[in-house]
Design a protein that fits this description.
heterodimer; A: 301 residues; alpha/beta; TIM Barrel; 14% strand; B: 289 residues; mainly alpha; 2 domains; elongated
């Protein structure tokens, strides 16, 4: 079975993760721009971060046969540093138009402050102007009202819910998000938020329409294999494979394909990567045998 | 007609959508600020199709008449439009390109480095291109190092040597480096021989193309070392090592060759490089399948 992990922060992950993900069937991933676990203090840090997720990280992923996309945005936590936020806002249009960018995100609320609200709205307008989908991060604290407020604001700006992904849902938020016509994403974390077992129950109850899952794996305790593991659990519990396919692949593809930058043909014939160059030491496969050398089909001349 | 006008004309011909055509034409003639230039450069991703360009022989000839060095291969329409924009922006300075690259994705970087050699003030951008060689993204490295006339005419010896060494290290096809033979030098040859020693110590191979850079620099000592390694090398490497030994003027090497039954053949250095590249590519396709 093939999987898409539509929310994972690969800059914080190792090549072991990439190998395991590829082995588990993950063919494409989306890396939303987020914070790094501590607030940045210079606009240059944002610039280099954005530059890394539109270029270097995509190359790193391609070396493991995984197609990498990202979203560009100013996250809600760092929106609270207003003088910095102003400078970051000027950078966003430069990066949001890049080849592998599939949405503006992840944006929304953290503490639901006035500054967060200001930059959430400004970025909704940017997404409108650039005709990009929006990825909304819902807050960890006061989640339900933060989620409702996010949807109210989006609608106030005239955004079509079918172009928006509301992420990090739980049993408390799922109903209203689905009802209002948004893509409804769930993050499967090992300890917090949604666990795999709870996710199975959600799918049993609400079906697969507009629902998909992700790992949101980052620099904290998290599991880059959440998507394939949850898929397996669903199958074990008797959920039909079409449903699992929708929740772990197809729906995320449909949601983000609206950007015009993500399509199945990007990976169905293999992701462009040149393993032969990885014989060298200055690559991510330092001194290991490239995969191809173990392939018995190779005809030596 | 200047090169910039010619390229613009070909771009506009290829743009079938009237709205896009007008947008692009108007942008070429109206950009006055860096910010507008950056956004327009980025917007090409959204607005302009990426098809492989089909220029006819007459058009190709016209371009080559303007600049015989122009590498006509592998331009897509979006790349040619970006090249056009770079030529038309009247305030294109070192700082503009530096910033443009710092916010560029891989495809954009490739286009910028492909275009720089043909800009009117190309020589101003040498430090940018030298810095570009420090990338680890293969496509970007290739855009500078391979089939690009810029390094040969703008890099110092040390910069040139770094590029060739890195190309060999990354197993890029050095036969595609412009003027690779004209710019070879003793310093580079000995750095590369050291590199080969490191690889041998780790029981790893080196690309057979490395030996091309040893021509005219072989000493008796190095020859003896190579001879030992030839027993273990694969066939393309043996062939390349034999070739460089044969081309040397060392008596001891010529005497040794006469005692050998192995045929050296008449394979060219370009052929050695191209065979090696195609074998690698075939291996990669097999592993993808």
């Amino acid at each position: 079975m093939k999987f898409i992990d539509p929310h994972i922060h690969m800059t914080s992950r190792t090549t072991n993760d990439y190998e395991a993900m590829s082995k588990a069937g993950i063919v494409a991933i989306i890396e939303p721009a987020f914070w790094l676990g501590q607030p940045r203090t210079e606009v240059g840090s944002f610039k280099d971060y954005f530059s890394s997720i539109v270029g270097w990280e995509a190359f790193r992923a391609s070396q493991f046969g995984i197609k990498h996309y990202c979203t560009i945005g100013l996250n809600s936590k760092e929106a609270n540093n207003e003088s910095l936020a102003e400078e970051v806002m000027k950078l966003l249009p430069l990066f949001a138009l890049k080849d592998n960018v599939v949405a503006i995100g992840e944006i929304g609320y953290d503490d639901q402050t006035a500054a967060e609200d200001k930059y959430f709205r400004a970025q909704i307008e940017l997404a409108k102007e650039l005709e990009l989908p929006i990825l909304v991060h819902t807050p960890h604290r006061d989640k339900k009202s933060g989620t409702l407020r996010s949807m109210d604001v989006l609608e106030e700006h005239g955004i079509d819910p079918s172009t928006v992904i509301i992420d990090h849902n739980n049993e408390e938020t799922v109903e209203s998000v689905l009802e209002r016509g948004y893509w409804t994403a769930f993050t499967i974390y090992p300890n917090t938020k949604m666990g795999s077992e709870r996710m199975v129950a959600v799918v049993e109850k609400y079906g697969s329409n507009k629902i998909f899952i992700d790992s949101s794996a980052d620099w904290g305790v998290s599991d880059p294999l959440s998507v394939p593991k949850t898929a397996q659990l669903m199958l074990d519990k008797g959920i039909k494979s079409e449903v699992v396919h929708a929740v772990c692949y197809q729906n995320a593809l449909e949601a983000y394909a609206q950007s015009g930058n993500m399509k199945e043909s990007d990976w169905s014939n293999g992701v462009h990567f040149d393993q032969s160059v990885l014989y060298g030491g200055n690559s991510v496969l330092r001194g290991q045998n490239p995969k191809k050398s173990t392939n018995s089909d190779i005809v030596d001349n | 007609m200047r090169l910039s006008e010619l390229i613009k004309e070909y771009c506009l011909n290829e743009l079938k959508d009237e709205k896009t055509k007008n947008w692009f034409d108007q942008k070429l003639n109206s950009i006055k600020t860096d910010q507008d230039f950056f956004i327009t450069f980025a917007l090409i991703n959204k607005k302009i199709p990426r098809g492989q360009l089909q220029l006819n022989p007459g058009q190709i000839q016209n371009i080559l008449l303007k600049n015989p060095e122009f590498n006509i291969d592998n331009w897509t329409l979006d790349q040619l439009c970006r090249f056009s924009l770079l030529m038309y922006y009247p305030l294109l300075r070192v700082q503009s390109i530096t910033t443009l690259i710092s916010v560029a994705d891989t495809r954009e970087q490739v286009t910028i480095y492909k275009s720089i050699p043909y800009l009117a003030n190309a020589s101003h951008f040498a430090s940018i291109v030298v810095n570009g060689i420090r990338t680890n993204i293969v496509d970007v490295f290739d855009a500078i190092a391979l089939n690009n006339p810029y390094p040969a005419s703008n890099f110092s010896q040390d910069e040139w040597n770094q590029m060739v060494l890195k190309a060999i290290f990354m197993e890029r096809p050095i036969y595609q480096i412009k003027d690779v033979d004209q710019r070879k030098n003793k310093k580079l040859a000995y750095i590369l021989f050291d590199y080969a020693r490191e690889r041998w110590a780790a029981s790893r191979r080196v690309t057979p193309e490395l030996w091309r850079m040893m021509r005219g620099c072989l000493t008796e000592e190095l020859f003896l070392e190579m001879r030992k390694q030839m027993v273990e090398g694969d066939e393309p490497s043996q062939q390349a090592m034999l070739k460089v030994i044969k081309e040397s003027n060392l008596d001891v090497a010529q005497k040794w060759l006469n005692t050998q039954s192995i045929k050296t053949g008449n394979i060219s250095w370009d052929q050695i490089g191209s065979d090696f590249l195609h074998k690698n590519q075939a291996l990669q396709n097999t592993s993808k399948a």
